[in-house]
Design brief:
Elements (H helix, E strand, L loop, with lengths): L1 H28 L4 H15 L2 E9 L3 E8 L8 E3 L3 E4 L4 E4 L12 E7 L2 E10 L8 H44 L10 E8 L7 E7 L4 E9 L3 H20 L4 H16 L5 E9 L4 E7 L5 E4 L4 E4 L3 E2 L14 E3 L5 E6 L1 H4 L10 H11 L5 H16 L8 E8 L1
Parallel strand pairs: 12-15
Antiparallel strand pairs: 1-2, 1-7, 2-3, 4-5, 6-7, 8-18, 9-10, 10-11, 11-12, 12-16, 13-14, 13-17, 17-18
Organism: Algoriphagus taiwanensis
Keywords: Hydrolase
Pfam families: SpoIIE
């Protein structure tokens, strides 16, 4: 009779275990929320497996997050750092490096959950009584099922977030392409060529060329601090403000002060933009410009075959509520000349030895290729860049714009 009773109890427990297994797998197949899966698992352990107290920690980005805590009187941490968990898989020993205020002493055993060599979860248990025999194999199995389901849910959330991010980046990239001029002039009086390599799908560089009238043309290059969508959005706002100001008859000084004020108001000094703005008057043969902390463009005089850096201006935009100083550069009697504008992604291009291309190499190349057609100049210059850097990828956005006036 005793043997029959033991056999019945064993049969009854297996039946309960199968019922519990069916319930949790059904909830997983129905894609129930994480909270539902955890409640089913908790109910199974407490009712069907004769467990009195339990704690479940699940791995998450370098730490173990507490998901379940029931029947524990002592103080336990909400998070265990990976460095605090020393688990010896071979010997089955676990050591927790915790401060004195935390204690797991009232729990009698633990079950680790592994995927290959990676520890995914820790389950701490205490039986309802000493007479109860824990079915550790079933407990391990059902814990594995739960943790894998939670991991799959986390992976699915990441995939969805990544897909949303990819769509946002693609939209930002399309918007950014609209910022750049769709057609560059290629006439006898003005030829322009731009080479632009964004570091990622969206970059923080901006260039523009605006023919305001038959006599006047504006050109600029800018580089916003940071990368990604935030930098692209800030640059789009900057471009909108610039174009609005250029439609007015505001001077270069007023334009720079207003751009700085708008940028500072939007970012509270946390982001800044380096910027160069030039204005050429064909009738007066006059170049006026302001350099706001940007890499100085190189002006090439066809008469005399000399070059100079266009440095006059002010500091970076957005760092101060009011620009501390502002100087406008001006050159007269310019009729045949070339200007090369670029961002620091060009001069900071690295080779295999960790050397930067640098401003000296750029100026040397420009001096030996004076007043060349911009299309041909870029072809030869970027062959020079390729030969210099070899297989080393660019580490920043790169923009290079050449304008030939004649």
């Amino acid at each position: 009779m005793i043997l029959e009773g033991q056999a019945y109890n064993k049969y009854q427990r297996k039946e309960l275990e199968l019922k519990a297994l069916l319930e949790i797998t059904q909830a997983i197949n129905e894609n129930q929320p994480e909270s539902v899966l955890l409640n089913i698992f908790k109910f199974t352990c407490l009712v069907h497996l004769e467990i009195k107290a339990m704690i479940l920690y699940v791995a998450k980005e370098g730490e173990f997050e507490k998901k379940i805590a029931h029947g524990v009187k002592g103080k336990i941490p909400a998070v265990l750092l990976s460095s605090q968990v020393i688990d010896h898989k071979e010997s089955g020993e676990l050591r927790l490096d915790l401060s004195g205020e935390f204690s797991f002493s009232e729990l009698e055993t633990y079950l680790p959950v592994y995927h290959k060599e990676k520890l995914l979860a820790l389950l701490f248990l205490k039986r309802k009584s000493d007479e109860v025999e824990l079915d550790l194999d079933f407990t391990q199995a059902i814990t594995n099922i739960l943790v894998v389901a939670l991991e799959n849910k986390r992976f699915a959330r990441r995939q969805i977030q990544q897909e949303v991010l990819n769509r946002e980046v693609a939209i930002a990239s399309q918007v950014q392409q609209m910022l750049f001029p769709s057609d560059l002039p290629n006439t006898q009086e003005l030829k322009a060529k731009v080479t632009y390599f964004p570091h990622s799908m969206v970059g923080g560089d901006y260039y523009d060329l605006i023919r305001k009238s038959k006599e006047k043309v504006y050109f600029c290059v800018a580089d916003v601090s940071g990368k990604g969508i935030a930098a692209a959005l800030l640059m789009s706002n900057f471009q909108a403000a610039l174009r609005t100001l250029l439609r007015s008859d505001a001077s270069l000084e007023v334009i720079l002060h207003q751009l700085n004020y708008t940028l500072f108001e939007n970012t509270k000094g946390e982001r800044f933009i380096t910027f160069f703005l030039g204005e050429y008057d064909f009738g007066k043969k006059r170049l006026r410009y302001v350099n706001a902390g940007h890499n100085p463009p190189i002006l090439c005089w066809e008469k005399g075959g000399k070059t100079e850096l266009l440095e006059a201006g002010t500091t970076i935009l957005g760092a101060f509520e009011q620009l501390p100083f502002l100087e406008t550069g001006e050159r007269q009697n310019l009729d045949c000349f070339t200007i090369h504008l670029y961002t620091d992604g060009l001069t900071e291009t690295l080779n295999a030895n960790g050397e930067e291309f640098g401003e000296e190499r750029l100026q040397k190349f420009v001096s030996s290729h004076m007043c060349m057609d911009p299309e041909r100049f870029h072809l030869e210059f970027f062959q020079e860049i390729e030969d210099f850097k070899g297989p080393i990828p660019l580490r920043d956005d790169l923009t290079f714009m050449s304008l030939r006036f004649s």
